[in-house]
Design goal:
The complex is a heterodimer of chains A (about 110) and B (about 110). Chain A has about 110 residues and is mostly beta strands. Chain A contains no helices and eleven strands. Chain B has about 110 residues and is mainly beta. In chain B, strands 2, 4, 5, 6, 9, 10 and 11 form a seven-stranded mixed sheet that branches. Chain B has a four-stranded antiparallel sheet with strand order 1-3-8-7, with no helix packed on it. Classes of the chains: A mainly beta (about 110), B mainly beta (about 110). Chains A and B meet through strand 5, strand 9 and strand 10 of A and strand 4, strand 5, strand 9 and strand 10 of B.
Chain lengths: ~110, ~110
């Protein structure tokens, strides 16, 4: 099974700050998922990436396959970005292993 | 499209009772899965299905049954609820490969007393 570690577990920042959340995994993968869990509990998929970088609005995800590491960045953070961010990696066929998440709080 | 619909949103059971958590998707996804989310732990896979008539166990299958009679529906059954099954349950669907995003339901918060 692929082991996934996220850091930090909790992150509090002021509005406008640049945010970085990290994800490391133990076994080589084909793609990595970044998910966002809203305070109300719903989970949405943000990115899937297998190499390089992807950008969607103020969110940027990068992955280094050789180092087995991915980062999620948020530029010009806003209170509405407050959520739990989760990375997940494949384990066997049709299975994902999830990190425990990073709880992000953006203070106005 | 409604996406992935989970019902109920909340449920309280007594130990030994049975119930079924419903999950339906309208995106014609072959892959459907059930996860439980507990404090301090990542989402853990209970059961999954890669198409109608096909199911398989995930990481924590004990105490749960599933079936997949149609592409749209993937119910999760608790035959005899235990306090250890108190958790938040999520259903998800996808195209069935590791390069496609998963679509999650809104979750079911289950308490077993």
């Amino acid at each position: 099974k692929n082991e996934v570690e996220q850091s930090p577990q909790n992150l509090t920042a002021q509005e406008g700050e640049f945010i970085t959340i990290n994800c490391s995994y133990s076994v080589g993968i084909s793609a990595l998922h970044w998910l966002q869990q809203h305070p109300g509990g719903g989970i949405v998929s943000l990115f899937m990436l297998s190499s390089g970088k992807k950008k969607h609005g103020r969110l940027i995800a990068t992955i280094n396959i050789q180092e087995k590491h991915s980062s999620l960045h948020i530029t010009a953070s806003h209170p509405r970005d407050s959520a739990v961010y989760i990375c997940a990696v494949p384990w066997g066929n049709e299975k994902l292993t999830f990190g425990t998440g990073t709880r992000l709080t953006i203070i106005p | 499209n409604a996406g992935v619909t989970q019902t109920p949103k909340f449920q309280v059971l007594k130990t030994g009772q049975s119930m079924t958590l419903q999950c339906a998707q309208d995106m014609n996804h072959e892959y459907m899965s059930w996860y439980r989310q507990d404090p301090g732990m990542g989402l853990r896979l209970i059961h999954y299905s890669v198409g109608a008539g096909i199911t398989d166990q995930g990481e924590v299958p004990n105490g749960y049954n599933v079936s997949r009679s149609t592409t749209e529906d993937f119910p999760l059954r608790l035959l005899s609820a235990a306090p250890s099954q108190t958790s938040v349950y999520f259903c998800a669907s996808g195209k069935g490969d590791n390069n496609s995003p998963l679509h999650f339901g809104n979750g079911t918060r289950l308490t077993v007393t």
